[in-house]
Write a structure and sequence with these properties.
Distance between the termini: 29 Å
CATH topology of the domain at 8-183 and 222-252 and 289-304: Rossmann fold
Number of strands: 13
Number of helices: 11
Helix content: 40-55%
CATH class of the domain at 8-183 and 222-252 and 289-304: Alpha Beta
Strand order of the largest sheet: 3-2-1-4-5-6-11
Shape: globular
CATH superfamily of the domain at 8-183 and 222-252 and 289-304: NAD(P)-binding Rossmann-like Domain
Structural class: alpha/beta
Order of helices and strands: EHEHEHEHHEHEEHEEEHEEHEHH
């Protein structure tokens, strides 16, 4: 028996990159997983791998308060991982209203449902983002850095973050917040993102596309390390020094876009490929990276995967998936 055995766990965003790996790990640890699914995406990892067939499926939107409340109450949910969101920066800029509906309204609906079902719910982990911090001259971000998102996606995550803190301070909801760097790993089928797009281009012997000028700096964080972080935080809750708190999770190794592309091409043996730099990116933060000392100190947590090893696993996943030799 481990901590998650026979626990009823609710996951929003289960068909996303992080959601698929988190659901898989929860199932492997014996949890009963309840997934809120809006769109049926046949090629996503959670569907193709058969993970969803092993879960309770609730079809609907985060914006539907009654549905979310019913699901948490009816399945007597003990633990909640709120990953569901519109996660693409470009999409948010093109359609801020739908992004705000999903990321802000969806978050308060879920938090209110957890409050209403407070006799069952013992822990709520809300996925914020390093984007919630916005632009700051002083880096790296610590958890005390003010949340001052300016662009639509960043604002949506700042608001969701603050809503979670409000429900803790006002209603004592046992909630904690994660602020992660840029996630990558097998199963991310949004090829507009840097790492999957670069891998696919290299496998097709084509020039990788860089939307920005290549100088943006980010903290790139392997999805398996993120899963370990989420589970470590949730299992330690609702300890007093964890609820109502935010935690940064990342590698603390800032890299430019060009440096990441060069690293991927080097590992794939395609160093002769020259990236195409579009310099089209707008409404994005130039430099972001995290101080994760709080997570190390409070949770005894650290990433387990070296950067090259994480990228090799990711490259191998896409090589098999794109060749049709492996389902998602």
């Amino acid at each position: 028996m481990n901590f998650w055995t026979q626990r009823n766990v609710f996951v929003s965003g289960a068909t996303g990159l992080l959601g698929s790996w988190l659901v898989e790990e929860l199932l492997s640890r014996g949890a009963t997983v309840v997934c809120l699914v809006r769109d049926w995406v046949p090629r996503c990892r959670t569907v193709e791998s058969g993970l969803l067939e092993r879960c309770v499926i609730v079809r609907g939107d985060l914006e539907d308060h009654d549905l979310v409340t019913r699901a948490i109450n009816e399945y007597e949910v003990d633990s909640v991982f709120h990953l569901g969101a519109q996660t693409i920066v470009g999409t948010a800029s093109r359609s801020p209203r739908s992004t705000f509906e999903a990321n802000i309204r969806g978050t308060w609906n879920l938090l209110e449902a957890c409050r209403a079902c407070g006799r069952c719910v013992q822990r709520v982990v809300v996925a914020s983002s390093d984007k919630a911090y916005g632009v700051h001259d002083k880096l790296p971000y610590t958890e005390d850095t003010p949340l001052q998102g300016r662009y639509p996606y960043d604002v949506s995550k700042s608001c969701a973050d603050l809503l979670a803190l409000s429900y803790f301070h006002t209603y004592s909801l046992p909630v904690a917040i994660t602020r992660c760097g840029n996630l990558f790993g097998g199963g991310d089928l949004n090829f507009n993102r840097l790492i999957p797009g670069t891998i696919r281009s290299a496998l097709q012997d084509q020039s990788p596309i860089i939307r920005s000028d290549g100088k943006f700096v980010r903290d790139y964080f392997y999805v398996k390390d993120a899963v370990n972080a989420y589970l470590a935080l949730a299992a330690a809750m609702p300890a007093e020094n964890l609820v109502g708190e935010a935690f940064n999770f990342g590698t603390e190794t800032p890299l430019s876009v060009l440096a990441v592309v060069e690293q991927v091409l080097g590992l794939m043996g395609n160093v002769s490929l020259v990236p195409t730099i579009l310099n089209h990116a707008q409404h994005e933060i130039p430099e972001q990276f995290l101080d994760c000392s709080k997570a190390r100190r409070r949770l005894d947590w650290k990433p387990l995967f070296a950067s090259d090893d994480a990228l090799r696993e990711t490259i191998d996943w896409y090589r098999r998936w794109l060749s049709g030799t492996q389902s998602a």
